[in-house]
From TrEMBL:
Source organism of the structure: Paracoccus lutimaris
Gene Ontology cellular-component terms listed: ATP-binding cassette (ABC) transporter complex
Residues annotated as signal peptide: none
Compartment(s) where it occurs, according to its Swiss-Prot or TrEMBL record: Cell inner membrane; Cell membrane
Protein name: Amino acid ABC transporter membrane protein 1 (PAAT family)
SUPFAM superfamilies in the cross-refs: MetI-like
Lineage: Bacteria, Pseudomonadati, Pseudomonadota, Alphaproteobacteria, Rhodobacterales
Length: 229
């Protein structure tokens, strides 16, 4: 316990980085998920094919491979383009940016399928009724599609978020000083690796418990007035 108190600032800094990384990647993944779901449900063949290729490729490659590919290969590619075009000088992609982008893109593919399934679960007649009463498409989305989509998507959304939160630990491999990286560094320097990794274990469980409470509250909010069988 004394060791944990001694390194509490290092662990806290890692925790803050982990939460920031998870939230930044969540914003990107939800955005890509909504766009991907729209594309997959679109009558536009090009958009449909592009979204299909995106979800297939991303879900077929290990997360760690993509993270390392973006961090190392992405930086080389961006600087090669800048040198060839003269549009920018040397650009350095930080571990945080590489991690947030990669995890966001990875889980954007999973959220695409979650949101797509949630939209398909909405009775088509409700959407047609909204249009027939003179509602514009944005109003139909806001009043009919969005509330029900959220209700149907919450279980899958919660599962994806909890996995996404744990996936942030992979970014420690490329040197981001997140919770896992800082706990591992402290454990190696003190010879108490088990103690610090156990602390990381407990912290991740606490984050999961808090997330679960938030997801349950979200589900209750969007299930008001719904009669369960």
């Amino acid at each position: 316990m004394d060791l944990l108190l001694e390194y509490r600032e290092q662990l806290l800094a890692g925790l803050v980085t982990t939460v920031e990384l998870a939230l930044a990647s969540l914003v990107l993944s939800v955005t890509l998920g909504l766009l991907g779901a729209w594309a997959k449900l679109s009558a536009n063949r090009a958009a449909n094919a592009l979204a299909g290729a995106y979800t297939t490729v991303v879900r077929g490659v290990p997360d760690l491979v993509l993270i390392m590919l973006v961090f190392f290969g992405g930086q080389v590619t961006v600087n090669a383009i800048g040198t060839a075009t003269g549009l920018w000088d040397y650009v350095e992609i930080s571990q945080f940016v590489a991690g947030a982008l990669t995890i966001g893109v990875i889980f954007g593919a999973y959220f695409t399928e979650t949101f797509r399934g949630a939209i398909l679960a909405i009775p088509r007649g409700q959407i047609e009724a909204g249009i027939s009463t003179g509602m514009s498409r944005p109003l139909v989305f806001r009043r009919i599609i969005w509330p029900q989509m959220v209700r149907y998507a919450v279980p899958g959304f919660g599962n994806n978020w909890l996995v996404q939160l744990k996936t942030t630990a992979l970014v420690s491999v490329i040197g981001l000083q997140d919770l896992v990286y800082n706990a591992f560094s402290a454990g190696r320097s003190t010879g108490a690796l088990f103690t610090f990794m156990a602390a990381a274990f407990v912290i991740y469980l606490a984050l999961t418990a808090l997330s679960d409470l938030g997801l349950r509250a979200l589900e209750r909010r969007y299930s008001r007035g719904v009669v369960r069988a």
